[in-house]
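Can't paste images in this forum, so I'm doing it all in text. The chain is below; anyone willing to post the predicted C-alpha cells underneath?
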Amino acid sequence: MGFFDTWNVSGITTDSAKSSEPFYLLAQAIDDSGQDDIPIELLLKTAQVMLKKEKSFELFFYKSIKAEKTDAIQFLVALSSYIMGKDGMFWDWQTVRHHSQGLYGSMTESPNEFVQ
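Text version of the structure:
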C-alpha cells in the first residue's frame, strides 16, 4: 500500500468509524442485548446500508472495480463495528478504525488469505 493510499484509507476509516455505532447497535439488537429501545425502522435502515456497502465490497474485492473503493472500505468499518457488538465489546470508534484498517491491510496485502 502506497503512502497516498494509506492516507486515503485512513481518512475514510476515521470518518466512517466515528459514525459506525448504529452497526454496533444493530448487532446487539439482533442478539437481544437490551437494545429494545431502538426503533425497528432505524435497525432496518442500518441493515440496508450495510447490505448495500457489502455489495460494493464484493465489486471492489472480487472484480477490482475501483469506483467502489470508498463504499468497500466503509463496509469494512461497518463490519468491524457490527462484530464488536456481536462480541459484546464496548463500542469505541478508535477500535473500530483500527480493526477496519487491519482488515483493509489484510485484504490488499494477502487477498488469498483474506478470503479464507
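Helices lie at 3-18, 21-30, 40-63, 69-86, 93-109, 111-115. The mean pLDDT is 88.
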